[in-house]
Amino acid sequence: MGFAAKVCAACLAVSTLAACGTTVARPSATTSATPQEGAGRAAQDATRYTANATVLQNPQHGPQLCMAVMTSLPPQCGGPDIVGWDWSKVQSQERQGVRWGEYHVTGTWDGKRLTLTEPAGPQVETPVMPPSKGRFASPCPEPQGGWHPVDPSAATMETQEQAIQRAQSVPEFAGAWVDQSYLDGLPTGMESTAANDPAKLVLNLRFTGDLSGREAWIREVWGGALCVTGAERSEASLRKVADALPDDLRSGLDLQALETSVDTVGNKIDLTVYVVTPRLRGWLDDKYGPGMVEVDGFLKPVA
What we know:
Blueprint: H1 6-15, H2 35-45, E1 48-58, E2 61-66, E3 82-83, E4 93-95, E5 98-109, E6 114-116, H3 157-168, E7 173-179, H4 191-194, E8 202-207, H5 214-219, E9 225-230, H6 235-253, E10 259-263, E11 268-273, H7 278-288, E12 293-297, E13 300-301
Parallel strand pairs: 3-6, 8-9, 11-12
Antiparallel strand pairs: 1-2, 1-5, 1-13, 4-5, 5-6, 7-8, 10-11
């Protein structure tokens, strides 16, 4: 396993060991609601949501909201219909019967469609959160004198890969990542050349169950800095839930999962849907247990 740079290494630690979901088919028609559900939906309809997104229309469908776009020419994408869309009010591109553009949209959500409550406009800048310096930090307390290899001759990229493969070989494996906090504070431009030094990074491995003997077992191949910690859920169990989650959502709430992935460091599943509601959060906690699935909405409530 290679780690090319500090940021890429962090991403690789998660993405390589994560199960990424794919867009699933659009949900079936909504069943009739009870009076209580209908009242809840009416209240939800009054909430305005917003997003920066591509809007695309082709010969098969009218204007639709797209979360992801295939970079062909013309582009290809699909999503929920947009009610009230007027191409004459916005700038757009058109090719081979396909019309599209990138916009900032605001409207109400009925569970299937976005109904505009104001004209679409150019995409707006959103604040970019700086990466958290503690995101990939080792949960183990730093040893006195700092993190150092216990056997420099066995602190190599080859032994690092062997250690990760060994950890992945048992059902209790719950995740692996590298902590490269030693890069913090380096001048811009030096991080990429200094990254992935097996003599300086900390290899983090997680397991469920009894940890007795785990560190010694890894030390048979890895001589670099090491942090072995426990986890509530194995990676295999998280992958299983992540794979089933799109179908569970469709059958349980008639909702579409836009993306699912396993967060190795957080020991949880990340889920993206169009709109997050209290009902959805409660359903996820009831079905999978509190904290197992963290959900985010593509459409955000207007503040």
